[in-house]
Design brief:
By secondary structure, this protein is of the alpha/beta class. It folds into two domains: about 5-300, ABC transporter type 1, transmembrane domain (ABC transporter transmembrane region fold), CATH 1.20.1560.10; about 320-525, Rossmann fold (3-Layer(aba) Sandwich), CATH 3.40.50.300. It has 19 helices and ten strands. It has a six-stranded mixed β-sheet with strand order 6-7-8-3-9-10, with helices on both faces. It has a four-stranded antiparallel β-sheet with strand order 2-1-4-5. A hairpin with a 2-residue loop joins strand 4 and strand 5. Helix 2 (about 15-45) runs antiparallel to helix 3 (about 45-90) and helix 5 crosses helix 12. It is elongated, with a radius of gyration of 34 Å.
Length: about 525
């Protein structure tokens, strides 16, 4: 948890976590003191001991509440800082790294893993009191009252603890992967048969799907029965040992010859090990889960990000060039010493067969991919030397597809023009060949309509460089041609440099210039 990558988010929480731990410890000690008062009441019937115990129970409860508030408040701040840290890191990752993570992996990082850490951070202080301080104090009191013989009362809890701390983790580690695979198999088979039953019947495969489901169900049953048989007997023994009657029997055998106060103290404090052991069956699982989550988050935060410089402004015309660029993906070179200067006031179309690095080149031009060799220059300045805010002001990158935010069309367009009025937003939509209500939910639009919302942002942006990846892939030829002509007017009339990737050669013919990529051994050629 104190890994250097998580430290910036965790360190500010240390004071409150430490205070919360102390409060939890003193709460436990106060409750033990109250219990001691009740034992004294057995020997000396007096209202004093009743009041004594009541006061310490109230103090213990108040300290427990304070401990809970302190650690949860500290954890809330830690979670918020960690989420911001992950978000800041995420938006600075190269696209090649992002593509390796996967949607589910990223979702687990920003949601499930942080929630797991929440449970670990927020509950660990109280567990320190329960599993360490209170048992130690109770054991010291037992030895002081009865002597070393009192240690025998700890035997049931100690044996049960060994089961939960050694045997259960060993069996889970050995059989966990197999059980999980059996679960996945039966879920997959059920889905194949139930959800795909219509297709199965069309092609006469329903009997095969049913057979697969039946086999998976049998494997599931056999696996579960086998696993339960391995742990059931030991689990039953451990559960029996954790019953108070087992500990009380030994406690009575050890202390029956003493006075009633000593016997009562022995019986009460004999549960010093049993009570924590009752929580070992599930109570400490969150520690292992928290450590695993911390490991994944730490590994993610150690992924190298795109560097950002300190230049706050650039002088002169904002020209776009790429010089001697080479890029490798999974040991395959997709760009090799590519050099090109993109003309201003015009559209440049990047074409070529799939896999030659067109999108990679566009991402490198946007500063979203780091070249192994070469440099992308804005106004003769390395784009990575620019402050990221300046880079985003100068370059607008609209990726392929129709991704939109789950909000209105107006708010999606406002990403490119915060101060634009409705008339300007509607004009941009018209240039993108889209007629839609600004209050419409963007997520309910068709794929082509979503794509045109992205294109409309180009007409609203003040960035002098606009990069579009397959901007018309979901559109018919008529609308695609109209949009390219509108973009051409935008480039010429507003001094823009527009670069687009396209597979449509008819569309590329409307561009002012073309960069054709033929493969990693070809540096590209201009047409």
């Amino acid at each position: 948890m104190t890994d250097s990558s998580l430290a910036p988010a965790l360190k500010p929480a240390f004071p409150k976590l430490f205070a919360g731990t102390l409060a939890a410890v003193f709460s436990g000690l106060a409750i033990l003191t109250a219990l001691w008062g009740m034992i004294q009441l057995i020997g000396y019937l007096s209202s004093y001991w009743v009041i004594f115990s009541a006061v310490f129970w109230i103090v213990g409860a108040a300290l427990a509440a304070l401990a809970s508030w302190l650690v949860h408040n500290a954890e809330a701040g830690f979670s918020a800082r960690l989420r911001r840290q992950i978000a800041h890191h995420l938006i600075r990752l190269p696209t090649t790294t992002l593509s390796k993570q996967g949607d589910q992996s990223l979702k687990r990082l920003v949601s499930d893993d942080i929630a797991t850490l929440h449970h670990m951070v927020a509950h660990l202080p109280s567990e320190i009191a329960i599993f360490a301080v209170i048992p130690l104090v109770s054991i010291v009191l037992l030895i002081a009252l009865v002597g070393p013989m009192a240690l025998w009362v700890l035997l049931p809890g100690a044996i049960a603890s060994l089961y939960y701390l050694i045997i259960v983790p060993h069996v889970s580690k050995r059989d966990g992967a197999a059980r999980m695979q059996v679960m996945l198999d039966i879920i997959g088979s059920a889905d194949d048969y139930a959800r795909g039953i219509r297709d199965n019947r069309i092609y006469g495969q329903q009997s095969g799907a049913l057979t697969a489901y039946t086999q998976s169900a049998q494997n599931f049953t056999q696996n579960m029965v086998s696993w339960v048989s391995k742990v059931a007997t030991l689990a039953a023994v451990a559960t029996a040992l954790l019953q108070a009657v087992a500990t009380f029997a030994i406690a009575y055998l050890v202390a029956y010859q003493y006075d009633s106060m000593t016997l009562a103290a022995t019986l009460f404090f004999s549960l010093a090990i049993v009570t924590p052991s009752l929580r070992l069956g599930h109570g400490l699982d969150y520690v292992a889960a928290g450590r695993a989550a911390a490991t994944r988050l730490s590994a993610f935060l150690k992924e190298p990000v795109i560097s950002s410089g300190n230049l706050q402004q650039i002088e002169g015309d904002v020209t776009l060039e790429i010089v001697n660029a080479s890029f490798v993906i999974e040991n395959q070179k997709v760009l090799d010493r590519l050099s090109y200067s993109f003309p201003k006031n015009s559209i440049t179309a990047i074409t070529g067969p799939s896999g030659v690095g067109k999108t990679t080149l566009l991402r490198a031009l946007a500063g979203l991919a780091v070249l192994q060799e070469g440099v992308v220059q804005l106004a003769k300045t390395d784009i990575l030397q620019l402050h990221e805010k300046l880079r985003h002001e100068k370059v607008l990158f609209i990726p392929q597809g129709g991704d939109v935010l789950p909000t209105t069309v107006r708010e999606n367009l406002s990403l490119s023009a915060v101060n634009a009025n409705d008339a300007q937003l509607e004009q941009a939509l018209l240039k993108a060949q889209l007629k839609v209500d600004l209050n419409a939910d963007a997520t309910l639009l068709s794929g082509g309509e979503k794509q045109r919302i992205g294109i409309a942002r180009a007409f609203l942006s003040s960035a002098p460089i606009i990069l579009l990846d397959e901007p018309t892939s979901a559109l018919d030829q008529t609308n695609a041609t109209k949009i390219i002509l509108e973009l051409s007017d935008l480039a010429k009339n507003q001094n823009k440099t527009i670069v687009m990737v396209t597979h449509d050669l008819a569309l590329a013919a409307h561009a002012d210039s073309r960069l054709v990529l033929n493969g990693p051994t070809d540096s590209g050629k201009s047409l």
